[in-house]
Each structure stands twice: as structure tokens, then as C-alpha cells.
Design a protein that fits this description.
The complex is a heterodimer of chains A (112) and B (118).
Chain A (H helix, E strand, L loop, with lengths): L8 E5 L4 E6 L7 E8 L6 E6 L4 E2 L4 E4 L5 E6 L8 E9 L13 E6 L1
Parallel strand pairs in A: 1-9
Antiparallel strand pairs in A: 2-7, 3-4, 3-8, 5-6, 6-7, 8-9
Chain B lengths: L4 E3 L2 E4 L5 E6 L6 E7 L6 E7 L2 E4 L8 E4 L6 E5 L8 E8 L12 E2 L3 E5 L1
Parallel strand pairs in B: 2-11
Antiparallel strand pairs in B: 1-3, 3-8, 4-5, 4-9, 5-6, 7-8, 9-10, 9-11
Classes of the chains: A mainly beta (112), B mainly beta (118).
């Protein structure tokens, strides 16, 4: 079972920031938080990941709370092409490759 | 560069038939994963290869499913005696690193093969 909880759906106005929350209250010290998204009829796409510190890349920012029990993915200026299902995943590091355990994710609809 | 490719993109078969689904990972990626995604659900793990060997096949639902990666690159997922419940999108992912690192490597997914069993 997925170790994360996400709202099933969210709407965001085009051009505004989309803030997608994720709860992972049972996360362990060696588990990373990963975000993927899946646009309709495509395979999942990696967005960003982090362990403790906030992270930013060209796609998004990841804010992880100090207790690491929750995180927020931020798309700073959402566009219509950001409409997708967003998955928050926790995954163990230091143990070799491990499969991703997906939940149902959050369906983000960006509205013009 | 080229991403993960999967063929065919769509496969329609009849109940009881045998099917093969192919995955071409990103060149140089040592790890390869198969997932299955049913409608409205997130992908579910099936099997993971490190090189030529299956490092974890705990997600295969039963012995009708098996996968090979004989040369450590291309992989084939094989399903015998297909059932209607096997209908799903089958996703393949690959990653560069082979473990042994504190920062788990990123998996890159292909577009999937949509399997329909009539």
C-alpha cells in the first residue's frame, strides 16, 4: 500500500501557483519523497525528489516540513499542459533500487 | 537522447492467447522495471531487473506472467493464457544506477503498451 495521502483532485487557474499537498506521516529517516506526474495516455514523468531540504528545479519546487511528515509540490506558474495526475511517493534510499509504490495521486486540472 | 520505448503501443488479443510486450530502455541504464496500470489506478510494480537477472519479481500476479532480459538491455514481458482481467496499460521504466547509493536513482518511464483481452 502507498505510504502517502493526497487529495483526489484540485483545480488551479492558469498562470497561478499550484500547491499540491502530500501527507507521509509514517516516513522513515532513510526514505526520500518523490513526485511524478502522469499526463493522459502517457507514462509517468519524474518531477523532483528530496530527503530533508527543500528542492527546486526547472519544473517545480518541493517543500518538506521540518518533521518530514508532509510535503508540498509547487508549480509556480501553472499552464494548461500541467493538467495531469500527480503522485507523491516515499522510497527507501541506501538499499539499492526499489520499486515505486504509487497511490491514486491528485488529479490537477488547470483551468484557463 | 532517446527515451524508453515500448512496443506495441496497443495490443488486442483474445482470452487464452499468449502475448509478448517489449521494452527498450534508455541506453546504458542497468535497471529495468515493469509496472501495470489499471483504469483509474496508479501503476503497480511487477518485476525489476538489475542487468540480466530479475532482482525482484514479487509483483508478478501469478505464474502466467514472466519476463526476461537476456542481454541486459531489451526486456520482454510474456503473458500466457491471457484473461480479461489482464487488460491494462503495461509500463516499463529504466534507471541508470544499480543501487549501492544513498540517493535512489530516478526511474524514467516509457509510454506504455495498452493490452486489451477480449
Amino acid at each position: 500500500d502507498a505510504k502517502t495521502t493526497q487529495p483526489p483532485s484540485m483545480d488551479c487557474a492558469e498562470g497561478r501557483a499550484a500547491n499540491l499537498p502530500c501527507n507521509h506521516s509514517t516516513i522513515s529517516g532513510n526514505e526520500y519523497v518523490y513526485w511524478y506526474r502522469q499526463i493522459h495516455s502517457q507514462g509517468p514523468q519524474y518531477i523532483i525528489h528530496g530527503l530533508k531540504n527543500n528542492e527546486t528545479n526547472e519544473m517545480a519546487s518541493l517543500i518538506i516540513t521540518e518533521d518530514r511528515k508532509s510535503s508540498t509540490l509547487i508549480l509556480p506558474h501553472a499552464t494548461l499542459r500541467d493538467t495531469a495526475v500527480y503522485y507523491c511517493i516515499v522510497r527507501v534510499g541506501n538499499s539499492g533500487n526499489t520499486p515505486l509504490v504509487f497511490g491514486k495521486g491528485t488529479r490537477l486540472s488547470v483551468i484557463a | 537522447g532517446a527515451g524508453v520505448s515500448q512496443t506495441p503501443s496497443n495490443k488486442v488479443t483474445e482470452k487464452g492467447k499468449y502475448v509478448e510486450l517489449r521494452c527498450d530502455p534508455i541506453s546504458g541504464h542497468t535497471a529495468l522495471y515493469w509496472y501495470r496500470q489499471s483504469l483509474g489506478q496508479g501503476p503497480e510494480f511487477l518485476i525489476y531487473f538489475q542487468g540480466t537477472g530479475a532482482a525482484d519479481d514479487s509483483g508478478l500476479p501469478n505464474d502466467r506472467f514472466f519476463a526476461v532480459r537476456p542481454e541486459g538491455s531489451v526486456s520482454t514481458l510474456k503473458i500466457q493464457r491471457t484473461e480479461r482481467g489482464d487488460s491494462a496499460v503495461y509500463l516499463c521504466a529504466s534507471s541508470l544506477l544499480g543501487g549501492g547509493t544513498s540517493d535512489p536513482d530516478t526511474q524514467y518511464f516509457g509510454p506504455g503498451t495498452r493490452l486489451t483481452v477480449l
